[in-house]
Amino acid sequence: MDNQTINNSKSFIGKQADDLSNLIREQIKPIYESLGIVVPVKSCSVIHYLNKFDDLSVTDLAKHLKQSHQLVKQKLPKLHGLGLIEQRDDDNDKRRSTYHLTKEGKLQAKLLDENSLISVYQHLSNEIDADLHKVLNKAINGLKQKDLLTRFNENKT
C-alpha cells in the first residue's frame, strides 16, 4: 500500500482528524501573527471562557471545555508566561486556585472575538457541501454514546 492509499484509507479516521487539526492550527498561525494575536491556537478556548466567566478554577475550565483537568492545566503556564492570565488563591479553599485574564489577556480576547473565523469555516463547509461543525459534533457525540470497541464488536457478528 503506498502513502496516498494509506492517507486516504477509511480505516485511518483518527489520523485524518489529527491531520485536519494540525493543518488548521498551522494555517491559523499567520492570521494570528498578522493581527497581533499571541494566544496559542490550542489555548484560545481557555481565553474565551476566562473572558466570559472570570475567575475559573482548572476544574471549572475543564468542565466548560469538556477536556481533561490535566490538558487544561498544561495550557495555563504558557498563558501565564505570555502575561495573559493570573492565578489567584481562593480565600475560602486554600487548595483551590482560580484564573482570570490580565489587561493584556482581555485585549487578546477582544482581538479573538473581533476576528472570528466562523465565516471562514462556513465558506469551507459550503465548499465541501457539509457543515463541518455539525459533522464533527455528531461524530463526537456518536462515539460518546457508543464507543469504538462496542461498534467493533457489533460489526464482528
What's the mean pLDDT score? 92
What is the assigned CATH homologous superfamily of the largest domain?
Winged helix-like DNA-binding domain superfamily/Winged helix DNA-binding domain
The H/E string reads HHHHHEEHHHH
CATH topology (level 3) name of the largest domain: Arc Repressor Mutant, subunit A
Alpha-beta content class: mainly alpha
Q: What is the strand tally? A: 2
Quaternary assembly: single chain
Instruction: Name the shape in a single word.
Output: globular
Q: What fraction of the residues are assigned to beta strands by DSSP? A: 5-15%
**How are the strands ordered across the major sheet?**
1-2
Question: Briefly, what CATH class of the largest domain?
Answer: Mainly Alpha
Explain this structure.
67% of the residues lie in helices and 6% in strands. By secondary structure, the chain is mainly alpha-helical. The chain has 2 domains: 35-115, Arc Repressor Mutant, subunit A (Orthogonal Bundle), CATH 1.10.10; 117-157, no CATH class. A two-stranded antiparallel ribbon has the order 1-2. A hairpin with a 7-residue loop joins strand 1 (85-89) and strand 2 (97-101). Helix 3 packs across helix 6 and helix 4 (58-65) crosses helix 5. 11% of the residues are buried. The mean pLDDT is 92.
